[in-house]
Amino acid sequence: MLSAEADDDVIEAAHVMREDRVGSLPVVDAGRVIGIVTELDVLRQICRMDSACPRDIAEIVVSYP
């Protein structure tokens, strides 16, 4: 089963998602599912890290529930 470990960063999960063409991954800790990382989580991280991301766009992406 494809998954991300609890201590993986979003970038590592994004690589797995891209390679395996999936939109989300379960996050596991000690074999137990504790969450999910999605394409929106990846986009939020990109906007937070990219100073070239327009502020109004970043505010929308980061504040979207």
Would you give an account of this structure?
With 65 residues, this protein is α+β, with helices and mostly antiparallel strands. 48% of the residues lie in helices and 23% in strands. It contains three helices and three strands, in the order βαββαα. A three-stranded mixed sheet has the order 1-2-3. Strand 2 and strand 3 form a beta hairpin. The protein is elongated, with a radius of gyration of 13 Å. The N and C termini lie far apart (27 Å). The model has no long low-confidence stretch (mean pLDDT 85).
Please supply descriptive tags for the structure shown above:
alpha+beta; 48% helix; three-stranded mixed β-sheet; 23% strand; single chain; 65 residues
Quick description:
This protein is of the alpha+beta class.
